[in-house]
Each structure stands twice: as C-alpha cells, then as structure tokens.
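Appendix B, record 7
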Amino acid sequence: MRRAHTDSGDHWAGVEEAFAAANSLRRAASLVRRAELAVDQASQHSGRVAWAPAAERRGTSPERTPRALLGDGDRFAHRALSERRGLSL
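Structure tokens (predicted):
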C-alpha cells in the first residue's frame, strides 16, 4: 500500500494535500450535479416554447419582455438574449 507524501518526502504534508484534493473533487462533483439540474430545467422550459416566425410576432409591452422578466442579476441570460443567435424572442 502506498502512502501520501510530497515530492520532498513529507508524509503529513502529503496527507493534507490528498485530503484537500478529495474535498475539491467533492465540491466539483456537487457543482456538476447542480449544472445538470440547471440544464434539465432549461430544457424543460425550452420545450414549452412555440417559436413563430418573426414576421408574425405581435407587439410586446416592455414589462412583459423576457429581459424584464429575468431581472437585472442574470447577466448570462441578458447576454444570451442580446445575442439572439438567430432566434426572435
């Protein structure tokens, strides 16, 4: 069985680094799970959208636009809406 140690041979420092690595991996796994849930939620929402050609779009009031519904704190959603990437909201 191998024991944790640093390149300089320090066993206890190696043990501390091994625990730090394990904790970082646990945090990363938790973040990945949260990201998976967020993607699932976004997919569910996008599945409820019925896209219409831009020519058929009716006027929307400023308070009902998606940008107004998101609030000011979601800078990533605001950037996605501003880029539009070929979709008309």
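Remarks on this record: The helical segments are 11-46, 66-70, 75-83. Residues 66 and 89 are 7 Å apart (CA to CA).
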